[in-house]
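assembly run, all chains below
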Amino acid sequence: MNKNSEINTNNKNTFLTDYCLHLADNSLILAQRNSAWCGHGPILEQDIAITNISLDILGQARNFYQYTAEILNSSKNNSSAAVTEVTEDSLAFLRDNREFKNCLLVEQENGDWGKTILRQFLFSNYQYLLYLQLQNSADEKLAAIATKAIKEVTYHLKWSSEWVIRLGDGTEESHQRITQSIHELWPFTEEIFINAKYENELTEDKIAVDVSVLKDAWYKKTAAIFAEATLTIPENVFAQKGGKHGAHTEKLGYILAEMQFMQRAYPGCIW
Amino acid sequence: MDLHDFPALFQQKIDSETKIEPLDWMPDAYRKTLIRQISQHAHSEVVGMLPEGNWISRAPSLKRKAILIAKVQDEAGHGLYLYSSCETLGTSREATINDLHSGKAKYSSIFNYPTLTWADMGAIGWLVDGAAILNQVMLCRTSYGPYARAMVRICKEESFHQRQGFDILYTLSKGTDEQKAMCQDAINRWWWPSLMMFGPKDSESNNTDQSMKWKIKRKTNDELRQQFVDMCAEQVKVLNMTLPDQELKWNTETQHYDFGEINWDEFWNVVKGNGPCNKERLDARRKAHDEGEWVREAAKAYAKKRAGKNKHIAA
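ok done. output:
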């Protein structure tokens, strides 16, 4: 391999691992947020449902991290320097704030039940469209993970859509509460559909999904569900962005502080 | 048949190992005892989600996090089966839950102890679920059909819970000095409260005699407790740890382990509400219920609207 093509492969690998980390971080951070409902849900059946969604997306995150670790370890094996092995846990627990690539939406606070299910709806609506296409990725591993996950996400989208409708068209209080949550979360939706560098670099080879083309379908579905829920989509909202390349809201630091506590306090242990 | 034959017929069924079903005649006291016991059991599952739920956000690996979430979710499922069994006796889930929130109904005192370190997830699985299983295996053969059938399902999942708990401790016991210390500390803190889970001594237990006669229970508190001690005294050796009881000793005559006296003052104190987390646990349940009120109201209102619309369409 000549030097130029080696650099090229290295770059491609970095884009691929960044992309995998982005997909993994999205799922992990939302799983972490949702799992805080476990034992505290409004109805036992729904406590089980939100916890189950948490478990599903945690599973997706693990698949993406494991794949990332595989790529990183094999590229390290090619170089002579002895390095510690990368694992799903080192990726989840030993990276800091600026290295996380999740979109800002998933790190937003749980708020009340309405805010949590709305965040889930906005995210699942995107994730459904994303995985639908990622199933055809030129990268077989990514395609396989998406194919497995799409069944779960189909249910998450259905479940959260039903809740948005129920709360929007429920009582006056529930309508007001979820409207408030729409205003709080809407600024974080735009970012999802702006391709980050790693997405741009991988779309040509059909490895990553071009997220900019998902926006119309996402908006259409959101508008349809909101209409049924008698809710309105806000207009002229300033979009917050940055999470996909590591510029987060202050909230992520606290999520990581709690989530990473054990691995930071007791480094190098097996659990 | 004369009315006074019902009690005799009922006891006959019990004696011949025929399950009692929801529509069968049963003495009021049998029904009351079952409602008390099953609802207490259901509440224990639901309150029991809290001490372990406390560590979901801080689980030390992704695998452990996934297992813990699945486990706590199972407890919620157990709560559901048991509330349903309770409903077959003519008491609504709402009323049952209200009794928990008002402090009228009890739940297992073990959940009033705090989970301070990760090792507590292991100790709860091994000791608390281990103690619960002995009780629940017995309850698979309890005389009330719906309760027995719920228990069969629950037992399958509980044995997985116990194994995962032991596995957490086993991993710690093979780890660093800090991990080993964490493991021993958790065993020290959870051992005695686990022994208390079997309830008062037979000589002090008001409910045991009648429950045995009705075959709601098939083993006494002391029998189950002894079985538990015998089991754990052996298993702890695999961990290279010790149980915090100087008097624990194999007795060749009885073929059982002798063990020290339980601190019954502590037991009754926690039962009466003075345990380290009684207030916290109940507050957390009440808070979840109160904050969920508007959600339940909205769901109800929406369902009503939908029913109205469908009626309109049908007309």
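Chain A touches chain B through 49 residues (CB under 8 Å).

DSSP finds eleven helices and no strands in chain A.

not gonna interpret more than that til we talk
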